[in-house]
Amino acid sequence: MRGRAEGTEGSGTGRTTRITVDRDRCIGSGQCVMTAPGVFTQDDDALVALVPGHEDAAADPRVRDVPMACPVQAIAIHED
């Protein structure tokens, strides 16, 4: 299923990390999975998906590298 997906994780520092995925833009390159495999996966169509229960997303420093690794900028990381 295409569309948007979001995940929100607290970092323990009072800040919230929000991951936004634009599955309509995703081309299935897998760079997100290679960069942060504990947070991102690919579905049966090879499109990006968030790993269910990715509680360590905010603590994983590799997550911040994912938007730059994605060749079509289908993933955005926001810190509130």
Low-confidence stretches: none
Could you spell the SSE succession in H and E letters? EEHEEHE
Strand content: 25-35%
Largest sheet: 3 strands, antiparallel
User: What's the tally of helices?
Assistant: 2
Characterize the structure shown.
With 80 residues, the protein is mainly beta. Helix content is 11%, strand content 31%. It is built from two helices and five strands; from the N terminus they run ββαββαβ. The strands form two sheets. The protein has a three-stranded antiparallel beta sheet with strand order 1-2-5, with no helix packed on it. A two-stranded antiparallel sheet has the order 3-4. The radius of gyration is 12 Å and the shape is globular.
Characteristic key phrases:
80 residues; two-stranded antiparallel ribbon; mainly beta; 11% helix; 2 helices; three-stranded antiparallel β-sheet; 5 strands; 31% strand
Q: Quick summary of this structure?
A:
The chain is mainly β. It is built from 2 helices and 5 strands. β1 and β2 form a beta hairpin.
What topology emerges from the helices and strands here?
Elements: E1 4-10, E2 16-22, H1 31-35, E3 40-42, E4 48-50, H2 66-69, E5 75-79
Antiparallel strand pairs: 1-2, 2-5, 3-4
